[in-house]
Amino acid sequence: MSDILDDDLELRVGTLQLTSDNANADNRLDNASDAKSSNKNKNQLNANPSVLSGADSLSSSTSSFAGRDARAEGISNPEPRNASEPERTVYPRYDVPFNRENIKDFFTFRKGVVENAIQECITALLFPEDGEYLGSWLLTEITLWDNEKERIVLLTSRLVMTIKYDFIAMKQLDFKKTYLDDLDTIAIGELVYPPSSLVPRLNGIATGVTTVVKDCVIDRLCRRPTGNEEAKLFDPKYFEPRERNLRGVRLMWNKGEPLSLKTAWNPFSQDVPFLTFASHPIFWHKDGTLEERAMYDMETFAQKLQRAIESMPSSTCCIHHSPIVIQSYLGVTSLLHNKISLGFFKVRGKFSF
Asked: What is the number of alpha carbons within 13 Å of residue 350 lying toward its C-beta?
């Protein structure tokens, strides 16, 4: 009986020791996995620095479109909100330009206008030597001086054509061809200002003033707000600095060289070696699905442009998914230009221009 008890005790001790060894091994594997995951996350955070002129563009990004706009993701995968968390006030944002009523003043909002203009440009300006036609869009071009302008963009397997079009007289005014072979860098990401720029502060002040004047003067002429609404009218958050909160794509062919002073300080210069596009304001207000509004979507254009670049075996263009710096430091003229939409053809009271 004593031998049986001794054998049983040895078996249990051996089993306990084996279990402890397995647990220690599992812990070591988990720690190694956590270390690898931590290093991977650090590498991802350090990758893709901000691209301004292409000088720091050293390698191409992955072929996957990592910078896809979060508009669709936010709808399909909404973040759960704690029931006890108070609801936050939604303040004006620049990623939804204008409102439903103001957007109707755009000539391009009228049915068939954009489609007819694009078809006319394709027929008159594209030739067989320009390559295979890949798509057409109505986008917002953002100039070196941060001015927004309405442009038709045509993409082929060889070039990108930017067209200035008069949507009132329905005629072409000017166009520019940029060949894909000449591109050395493409940046896709958020539009941001330099840290020392005063533009976000001025945007916040202008937005706050217009919001308060509209709510205090115009709305009060129609109805008297309640006590809660009166508190919201003068909320100081309306005057906080406001970034663009907008994504864009920049096409560069300056070979990493900085802009010359003659080009950088000349608002009428035609030698700027890059193009910057964002989605047209109609994108956020047009009825229909995302596919039906793709004509006004910068993301769709960027995707097809990336595929066109990747399909060219001779191309050395680097594609980055990183912030796009707009070198605007004061921006008073561009603020006025963009606030009253001088770069778009629209009805302005008794006049149209």
From this structure: 0
Taking residue 340's Cβ as centre, other Cβ atoms within 10 Å add up to 11
Alpha-carbon span 260 to 266, nearest angstrom = 10
Give the span between the Cα atoms of 211 and 234, in whole angstroms: 9
- Contact present, 292 and 270 (Cβ < 8 Å): no
Q: Which helix (H) or strand (E) holds 220?
A: helix 219-222
Could you tell me the end-to-end alpha-carbon distance of the chain, in angstroms, rounded to an integer?
107
**Nearest CA-CA partner of 55 in 294, 252, 249, 241:** 252
Give the phi and the psi of residue 159 in degrees, each rounded to 5.
Answer: -155, 165
* DSSP helix/strand/coil, 166: strand
Tokens representing residue 10 in the block:
């040895």
Give the span between the Cα atoms of 321 and 326, in whole angstroms. Answer: 16
Neighbours of 350 (CB within 10 A): 5
Alpha-carbon span 258 to 264, nearest angstrom: 9
Q: How does pLDDT run across 46-80, given as a tens digit for each residue?
A: 434 444 444 333 333 333 343 344 444 443 343 44
What are the tens digits of pLDDT across the range 151-204? 999 999 999 999 999 999 999 999 999 999 999 999 999 999 999 998 888 888
Question: How many residues are present in the chain?
Answer: 353
Contact between 345 and 167 under an 8 Å Cβ cutoff? The reply is yes
